[in-house]
Amino acid sequence: MQTIVIFNWTMVKPIKKIGLFLILIIGLPIIFFAFREIVSLNENEKIIGNIYKNQLESILFSVNQYSEDIVRSWTTKIQAAVDENNGIDLKIINRLKRFFDDNSSVEYISLSDSALIKNNLLDRSSLKGNDEAVAAILKQNQQIIARLYRYKSNNFIKIEPLQKGLNDETQLLVFILSDGRLCGLAINKEKFVRQNLASKIQSAASNEFTFVVFDSAKNKSVYSIDYSSDQKIQRSNNLWLIPNYSLGIALKGTSIESLARSRTYTNLILILGLSVLMLIVAWFGYRNIKHEVELAQIKSDFVSNVSHELRTPLALINMFAETLSMGRVKTEEKRNEYYQIIQQETERLSKIVNKILTFSKIEAGKWQFNFSKADLNILAGKIYDSYKFHLQQKGFEFVFEQHNGILELNIDSEAVSESVINLIDNAVKYSNDKKRVVLRTGLTDGKAFIEIEDSGVGISGEEQKKIFDKFYRAGNVDVHNTKGTGLGLTLVKHMVDAHKGEIKLKSEIGNGSKFRLIFPIDQKK
């Protein structure tokens, strides 16, 4: 049975402080960053949304700018034709034939004076003369035309789309020529998108975006790249030169909102993974620190206990030896009593030193076991005979229950005897009023055992898990004055393990303890 003292709570406090400190330095940052990620989810959505919004608007602006550059190049060619032929319409027609051939999306060109009285319509073949339909459209948009002349007066040639063309398929664009005439450029809207803007849109799409150009008035798609009808358009803007055509753009396979959430969830998963890793590291660190703190405290207690264990017999030996050497003892009976005390304390001192030396050798791997055939009944009987008188003198009932038969094993008899004696000493040490110790041998599951049972203070279930650890001393207020080194049961465990055996303990507080050392029958070295 293990040596027992009051548990030292000074060891628990620093361990609790260390544990609390680790929880604070690891747990608080984890909670803070996780909370911050969750709270900032909407903020992240806005930030990512703004980033993509700016990027998408930049792409839309680029496409619109490209379309204007194309039309502006056309206006330059028309202006060159007018300048080259001094404004003579018949010559301009011949000059523009190649222009019509190169740009199939252009349906016709109209030339009008500033008063919108004379209107000539130029198609791909001839000069059609005054066109009343074109004149009507221009008169309906006099405010826009007046604005263009103001721009012209400031040396700026601007291209403006009119809200209405000759039909639904065309878009009429107007600008001012250098000679002051109003030029109208009618384009086929769908052809213009497919022939002139498609390449630019495709280059902008790359592998990240989908595009669609749709007719707002008819609510139908005119041109698209990787677009499906169930896809959500992230941003859309009207084409500058074709107001009722819109260019829509979206992310492939996702949306800005889902992208923001995905990134937030990814960050949370990374934080969680890092947190788990940090907690695992902290747990191992805490366990190691706890183990080291406990070991340091146990070693400190061990030194204190051993010092006391050594000091007590040495003080008694010194006191009685000094009394005898000074001749103060007058009777022979008293001298024999003092000699007996000196002998007993010397044996006690020798046991303590031998126990420490044995443990030191086992720890260093220098202990040599000498296995030989031995009968467990005979070994137990010798121990019983040696301790019977000693225990009876202390008021104990010492019982030997021997197995009927031979229990021959291949064991180190000295080591097994030392283990049993340790258990008997503990049984004696931790018995109260009910002083009874039973030494028992027998068979269980084809294995031999030797058992020591007492009726002492007992060991709690929690303490039973630790009592075989080196230097460990259980806490029990009923026996706190009992001293020991904390090595006895550790040595017993080492001895039994060396024999490939096992120890079984059955104990309850106040109802004693039963230690059973079990050895295989066919145990070999």
How would you explain this protein's 3D organization?
The protein has 525 residues and is of the alpha+beta class. Helix 2 packs antiparallel against helix 7. Helices cover 53% and strands 19% of the residues. The strands form four sheets. It has a six-stranded antiparallel beta sheet with strand order 3-2-1-6-5-4, sandwiched between helices. A five-stranded mixed beta sheet has the order 12-14-15-17-16. Strands 8-7-10-9 form a four-stranded antiparallel beta sheet.
Using the alpha-carbon principal axes, give the shape. Answer: rod-shaped
Q: How many domains comprise the coordinates? A: 2
Mean pLDDT, to the nearest integer, reads 78
Low-confidence regions? 1-11
Strand tally, please?
Answer: 17
CATH class annotation of the largest domain: Alpha Beta
How are the SSEs placed, and which strands pair?
Elements: H1 12-39, H2 41-84, H3 89-102, E1 106-112, E2 119-122, E3 127-130, H4 132-140, H5 142-153, E4 160-161, E5 170-176, E6 182-188, H6 189-205, E7 209-215, E8 220-225, E9 235-238, E10 245-251, H7 256-325, H8 332-364, E11 372-375, H9 376-393, E12 397-401, E13 408-411, H10 413-429, E14 436-444, E15 447-454, H11 461-464, H12 488-498, E16 502-507, E17 513-520
Parallel strand pairs: 12-14
Antiparallel strand pairs: 1-2, 1-6, 2-3, 4-5, 5-6, 7-8, 7-10, 9-10, 11-13, 14-15, 15-17, 16-17
